[in-house]
């Protein structure tokens, strides 16, 4: 569904301004490649925080404390 909406949006952009639509097609992969390292950094930071949380809560888990829901 997301791909379909993107295709419809690009088609509307193509009707109104075809040079801009072609520029979007050319620049989107370049922008994706630039953003890829930032995504990897974000995934790494989230994993480090999850590891720290697991280490900090390990004594409580060993004592049998269950989180409330």
Descriptive account of the structure:
By secondary structure, this protein is mainly α. It has one domain. The chain has two helices and no strands. It is elongated. The mean pLDDT is 92.
Q: Structural class given helices, strands, pairing?
A: mainly alpha
β-strand percent reads under 5%
Provide the low-confidence segments as ranges: none
Domains, number: 1
Write the layout of secondary structure elements.
Blueprint lengths: L1 H15 L1 H45 L7
Helix pairs in contact: 1-2
How would you summarize this macromolecular structure in one to three sentences?
The chain has 69 residues and is mostly helical. The chain has helices at 2-16, 18-62.
What descriptive keywords fit this protein?
mainly alpha
């Amino acid at each position: 569904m997301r791909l379909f909406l993107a295709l419809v949006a690009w088609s509307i952009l193509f009707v109104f301004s075809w040079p801009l639509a072609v520029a979007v097609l050319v620049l989107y992969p370049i922008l994706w490649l630039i953003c890829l390292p930032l995504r990897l950094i974000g995934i790494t930071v989230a994993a480090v925080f999850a590891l720290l949380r697991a280490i900090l809560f390990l004594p409580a888990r060993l004592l049998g404390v269950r989180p409330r829901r």
